[in-house]
Every structure is written in C-alpha cells, then in structure tokens.
C-alpha cells in the first residue's frame, strides 16, 4: 500500500514539474531552448563574512579591462557562493563541491531558461544553477535578501568558475519577459573568487524589488532567460 | 564689475552644460541623437493623494490589451505628474500647464538621451521632460524617492498625454549603458491619467536602487537613452 502511495506521489511530482516546464516554455517561446527548473536552496544564516581572504591583490570588480593576473587554480582559495554554506577550498574543486554537497546539476549550453520556483519564500534564500559552455563552468545565483525589514529584493548575478581575468573574456545577458514588459541586464560575469555580496553591494547585478519581481513572476515562479557570449574585444586583445 | 562677474558665471554655466552634453554623447555613441540635459524639479511635499478621482471606471494598468474606452479630453480630469504640484485640470490642458507653470520644453523626436543632473540631491526629487513624436506628447518622469530611510530608489516611467487606450498603441525603451554594463526596460507607456505613484507601486517602471544608479551615473549625472515606437499589434487590431 505504501509502495503505491509513493508511486502516486512521484507521478504527482512529475506532473507538477511538467507543468512548470510548460509555463516556462510559454514565457520563452523560442523553440528548443533548455528550461531548467530551479528549486530554492534555503539558508539559515548570513554568510557575508565568508569571502576568500587570500585575494587582496585582486583588481576591483569595477575595473574591467582585460588583465593577465596569474592565479594558480590549485592554490587560490575560494568559498562556496551559497549564502548558507561555510565551505572553503581551492578554485579547481568548487564545481565538485557544488555538485556533490549541494547536488547541483551541470547543464550544457550557452542559452537556457532559469525557472526559479517558490519566489514567495521568506528571505534569505538562494537559487543556483551551474552550466557549462564555451569551455568553462558558469554559475547563476539568484538571491532573495531583506536589507530593510518587509522589503525583500532579488539579486541575480552570473559567476565564472575561474579568475577575474578569465571572466573578462565573456558577456552575459539576463532577460525577464512578461505581459509586454521586458527587463534586460547585460554585463561581464564576476569571478567566483569574488563574493556574491560584493556584486550586490556594488549594484553590479540584476536587482528586482518585490513589486518588479511580482510583475514578472507567474504563480510564484520567475523565469529568467540567460545567454552567455564570448567578449570579442578581450579575445582579440589576447590573440594580439 | 557686477556685469562682468555675471557674464563670467554664464560662460562657466555654458562650459558645464557643454561638458554634460559631451559626457552624454560619449555614453550614447549613436551619431545625431538628441541629448537633453534635465535639471531636477525639487519637491517639498508628498503628493501621492493627488490622483484623478473621476476615473473609477479606468481599466487597471496591468490589463494590457487594446481597449476602446471613450474619454473626452475636455471633460476627463487629470493631475500634474510632478510630485510637488497640486494642479488638477482637464487632459487637454496638461501640456500647457507643464510648459507654462513648470517651464518644461517640448523636444521633438522618438529617440533622445535624457541626462538627469545632480542625482545625489536628497529625495524626494523629480526630473521630467516632455517630447513630441508619432503624433502625441509623451512625458518621461524620473523620481527619486525614499521608501526606507537611507535607502533612496530611482523610478523612471514614460507617460502618454492621452488615454490608457491610446497609450496601448505605443512601446518605449529606456536604456542605461556604462562600463560594459547595460540595463534595458521595455514596456507600454502609462496614461497621464494614471498616477506616477501607481506605476511605482505596481513595479511597472525602471527601478534602480542607489548602488545601481551609482554604477551607471557619471559624476552625479545619469544618462537614459529613450526610444518610442508604435505597437504594431494594437495598430493592426485597430485597423481590423
């Protein structure tokens, strides 16, 4: 009897997921685009003090010309980008940590749709996906945070599992689209060596207040179109 | 002596304006685009209760299909979109009120650059321009407002001097562009019969928190590229 109840539960979950896929596809009508349903990663504690401490010589994030600061991925220290996780390790093992400890799947492709579910959960909460394209791993982090009580904000930022100089070789675009409204943010990814918090403080991310998030969300789900491209300017400079 | 001092002051002002024009042109490189330097309109009092009261039958702003609600511009009541102004009058005389009382110039062209100066002034403060294109008058209102003390936000919205059904025939785009970051908001203008406040509450405008505004501003000035187009979908429906 228990077995049949569990089977029925699994079928219901599948129908729910299928419905969420359908909703996301309805928002982003371009055929063949990968839709990724992302459930929230609940946080219990503020982790803003977890930034890597071994990077005092890192150029500031607002300085965006192509640089050639040399980092050794086996030696450079890095922290988990999730708000609640205290993990610290070397750059080359961040992706293993995310996939093994947080069971994050790695998607393939430079253009995907990120469908964050349960937007109405109380802050702080993170949504995260990893995707692999253009020879690198990228992370999209969406964070709901309350700077002022009763006024949650959403911050979406793209991070490269790599150094700031490598991040400078790419551009990314995040797009919200609903009811004849479109909000687009285009920028250069930040390195995972930077804190997510520093991007939020600098305003260097897509920021949505509660009303804007509500306007673009559909039944508590927020679909964000993502596209990553190579920054031709930096690639040319590197070749020269 | 006083005359020469005043002349010198005027020359300095001209040099300052010329420098602001140069800065805006540097940001928006498309040749021949009109740059409009917009000084703030200081406000002394909250005017959120000034919404037109004779419009209970107006469809909500989130309902965006082409409608044919009939308004008589000589009878429909409307309030000044400026935060500090208590004026109320009929729809057909709003533009006269703005040009005569607030000395707002009417610019020509569907694509212009709005250069808001003195972004660091304390809230509340409005910047406004009127422009004429596609057979109508439009207003761009940029409002700096503090919902939470010490946390000012900027809200930019486009309004049509016309009815909600007329506003539905157009789309507009606002674009901020600086240091390899671009933020774009595309939407349908709201009717000037709606309150600016209602657009802010609904999240139906470009919202910038202080950090994002700082990221895109240059020496206290914020350049916003504006483009207005006809909504072909509604035009087609009207023709059919």
UniProtKB/TrEMBL annotation, chains A, B:
GO biological process: proteasome-mediated ubiquitin-dependent protein catabolic process
Assigned GO CC terms: cytoplasm
Pathways involved: Protein modification; protein ubiquitination
Source species, domain of life: Eukaryota
Enzyme Commission identifier(s): 2.3.2.27
GO molecular function: ubiquitin conjugating enzyme binding; ubiquitin protein ligase activity; zinc ion binding
Keyword annotations: Metal-binding, Ubl conjugation pathway, Zinc, Zinc-finger
Segments forming domain Seven-in-absentia protein TRAF-like: 132-226
Residues that span the membrane, as ranges: none
Catalytic reaction annotation: S-ubiquitinyl-[E2 ubiquitin-conjugating enzyme]-L-cysteine + [acceptor protein]-L-lysine = [E2 ubiquitin-conjugating enzyme]-L-cysteine + N(6)-ubiquitinyl-[acceptor protein]-L-lysine
A Pfam short name: Sina_TRAF
InterPro entries cross-referenced by the UniProt entry: 7-in-absentia-prot_TRAF-dom, SINA-like_animal, TRAF-like
EC primary class: transferase
Family statement: Belongs to the SINA (Seven in absentia) family.
PANTHER family: E3 UBIQUITIN-PROTEIN LIGASE SIAH2, SEVEN IN ABSENTIA HOMOLOG 3
Cited function: E3 ubiquitin-protein ligase that mediates ubiquitination and subsequent proteasomal degradation of target proteins. E3 ubiquitin ligases accept ubiquitin from an E2 ubiquitin-conjugating enzyme in the form of a thioester and then directly transfers the ubiquitin to targeted substrates.
Domain text: The SBD domain (substrate-binding domain) mediates the interaction with substrate proteins. It is related to the TRAF family.
The protein, known as: E3 ubiquitin-protein ligase
